[in-house]
Amino acid sequence: MKPLFQKIIKEIEKKASFVGRRLTFMELCGTHSQTIAEYNIKKILPSNLSLIAGPGCPVCVTSQEDVESIAGLAMAGIPIATYGDTLKIFDTSALLKKNGKHKIDIYVVYDVEEALKLKNQKPDLVFWGLGFETTAPMTAWAVKRGLIVYSTHKKFFPAMEALLENKELKIDGFINPGHVSAITGTKIYESLKTPQVVAGFEAKDVLQAISWLLDQIISGKFEVQNEYKRVVKKEGNKRAQKIIQEVFEVKDALWRGLGKIKKSGLVLRKKYQKQDAEYVYSKLLKKIRKNITFSSNVCQCGKILQGMRRPQECPLFAKICRPENPQGPCMVSVEGTCYIEYKYGK
Ligand code: SF4
């Protein structure tokens, strides 16, 4: 450990011992979870202080209904473009088997520009718009240029409210997401009466955030502190906010594990309905959704996303469920808690 780390760790130990009781902080970004795992931060924390991962992985929180709807579109012969992270969520071999001889066109794109280029060859291409406020502006930009989108974009703040309302959870403080906050700003969090620190992604940032959360608990003065000032501003990115608002409207959305969260979904405005897969393929989607059967497998991802289970508590973890053979969304994405635990846990 570097001397700077040693200093912060000593401060954390001192403050946690002063508080005395058990404390649980939740990190809300998959990239924070990666840093925590990579630097083994959980192991060096005092015994009365726990870190749990929250719903910061967009692939993991996508509802099964949305996954099945997109798979259904692909099986109906509609070309789909998506980010690489999402590809493993589809059991492509099962899709091919179900679809017999029909070809399935699922393309991995690096960004929306690539999807727009692909649209020149495949005019009916549907782009799966996925992610929080971080990726929604890029999707909005592409919608304005004619891309057809199936939007599972979500607003992050309503999920934080839902987590605090969950009586089974006892969260003493949040490490707020750095990427999302770069767009939304920090002001949005002020209505939550719980300790919060927006943090960057270095180990030092995460340790600093933990130390500041402890300060807030000791002083009893709960606020939103910004440790990531080099990127995150109080008002956020106004241009990005403007294009989100121009293209999307806010609706209730279904989150895996958290259920329906009010005013958390970003759907295309009526003005852009010709780019909205929900409108363009409304009849087909209705048919697909009517036939969805939800299998009750043992995947604990829903609980893991709320910090109520650890990956090791799932009977499939590291046995049947591994990154090359994921059985649930938390193992699919590099930001998924099970993937991170599998990669760094050893
Ligand atoms: S290990 Fe796999 S099956 Fe178990 S909770 Fe994680 S993703 Fe789901």
List keywords for this structure.
single chain, 346 residues, alpha/beta, five-stranded parallel beta sheet, 11 strands, 43% helix, binds iron/sulfur cluster
Please, could you describe this protein's structure?
With 346 residues, the chain is α/β, with parallel strands linked by helices. Helix content is 43%, strand content 15%. Strand 8, helix 12 and strand 9 form a beta-alpha-beta unit. Helix 1 packs parallel to helix 12 and helix 5 packs across helix 15. The radius of gyration is 21 Å and the shape is globular. It binds iron/sulfur cluster (SF4). Iron/sulfur cluster (SF4) binds next to helix 16 and helix 17.
Strand content: 15-25%
Overall geometry comes to: globular
Mean pLDDT over the full residue set: 92
Main sheet: which strands, in order across?
A: 2-1-7-8-9
Radius of gyration over C-alpha positions, nearest whole angstrom = 21 Å
- Distance, first to last CA: 19 Å
The computed structural class is: alpha/beta
Biggest sheet, in brief?
5 strands, parallel
Number of strands: 11
Helix content: 40-55%
Task: Please write out the topology.
Blueprint: H1 3-19, E1 23-27, H2 30-38, H3 41-44, E2 49-53, H4 58-61, H5 64-75, E3 80-82, H6 84-87, H7 92-98, E4 106-108, H8 112-121, E5 126-129, H9 136-143, E6 148-151, H10 157-165, E7 173-176, H11 178-184, E8 196-198, H12 203-219, E9 224-226, H13 238-247, E10 248-255, E11 259-268, H14 277-280, H15 282-290, H16 301-304, H17 329-332, H18 337-345
Parallel strand pairs: 1-2, 1-7, 3-4, 3-5, 5-6, 7-8, 8-9
Antiparallel strand pairs: 10-11
Bound molecules: iron/sulfur cluster.
